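Q: Two folds, back to back.
A: First:
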Amino acid sequence: MKKILVVDDDHILRKVLKHTLEQQGYQVKATGSGAEALAGFQNDLPDLIVSDVSMPTMDGFEFCRQLRSQPSGQLIPFIFLSAKSDLDHRIQGHQIGADDYLTKPFEMKELLVKIEALLERSRRIHSEIVHLLQQLVNSQSVNHSFAGINLNIANPNAKESKPEPLPLTPAEERVFWEVIQGFTNKQISERLFISPRTVQTHLSNILNKLNVENRTQLVRFAYEHGYEKNEN
């Protein structure tokens, strides 16, 4: 079940969105401010975010900006809802990092279509990551570009020596192998029988210990250093 985070200070609209999305089979978490959404974000990662722009304390633009500055928030689909319809305002929303922008009042049917389209795009991105991993293993060399990052990596199968032991705890190492196979936090949680919060904690520790910033860099690190297969 896909999880959607709704952020809007309008209590009635927030309630309507939550009810409608749940009726469509989504799991929904709703909050009234960007600050509150950020506070619980790492512990409960959503598959997609729908956020108002005009909110007190922290507006939607700042919420999106801070979200995109975090490795775990860079690729999450993000839709803005706003009463402001002028072109400059919409452009600003996209420049900050939003994937789509709807002007209030909007048709719920249109929002649902946009949500489905963005979730499908995320699925295709995940599939492409898995496909690239398979190519990295099966080819002598790879020169691909994905998500704006060029991957030009020699096949680690050509190396005769075994890679150095990872500087990770056993639990972190199990998560490491799952991540480089392209599994999402939710899938890892189900496969290893641990909570998504625990998965994210381990992943954050892994990124820090290996001095990489995000999943894509972690995959590159794994294949550059010969960690393409779990020998255990």
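A: Second:
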Amino acid sequence: MEITALRSDKIYGNIIHAAPDEKVELYRQQMLGPFMPKWNIQQIPFQSSEPHGFDVIMMNNLMNISPAGITPEINEPLADISSEAFWQQCDEAVRASLTTFTDNCIDLPVSEYLYTVLLGDQNSQAMQMNEGICGDGGIPGYIIANLIPNTYTLPRIQSVLAHECNHNVRYQFIQWDPYVTLGEMIVSEGLAESFATSLYGEELLGPWVAKTNMKTLNTIIKPKMKDQLHVTGFEQINPYLYGDDLARTQNFTPVGMPYAAGYACGYHLIQYYLNKTGKHITEATITSASEILAETKDFWNEDTLFHR
């Protein structure tokens, strides 16, 4: 297994000193270029043919510091991700996550992995809602964490990378369906966060779970979610998965859901599944959503108690 870190800190350092008219292309080629297979699979243009058209730079700028913003003003957050100790932590998290599967007799079809950590934009609404940390790991072989470094986020970087590694493994075994259902999405997110807590503990639960109390889960989320598990299309899924506030920013119709409702619901559903079946999280990770949902029908009709 080959695990490679794209040292974003060094790339940020190069771009800080570049001429303003060079920053965008340096960022595109050096920071995003190594992830080209990921963008191709996701059908995200590497460079738009239209001025200001959607491409990897525009997508980056939704959450991360834009190339134009890479100036000496970012020296403080950059210093937080520039130490050898930080990258050693990241490498240990990715390696520990992936070897947890191989140690449990799950052979991974993908043998080469590339990961990096990008500096989040403090003005991004998505980053603010996620308390300054999130990630992207759904394309096998490629993992990105987004981070606004502070005392809350830095201790969670390993847990977030573990979360994304779990997605990375799941979709080596579960065929991605363009008509993916809400059920698959909440199962996937629940598996990822359950895997992260299995390695790093519930005290490092991501805000997408920790910010939901049990009363909200039992009286609002579960009753509205349970009959929507079949829905497809991101305009239908995203309001349930991410909540109304983010849905509004994407011009989707709100459905009465709080922040990250699908993530919180998925986490507690998977905890219910693991407790009921006795399965290890690694085995559950490569189990179909239909099988997991069939085993957890009672979850929707019982009050969930936080089990910590």
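Q: And?
A: DSSP finds 16 helices and four strands in the chain.
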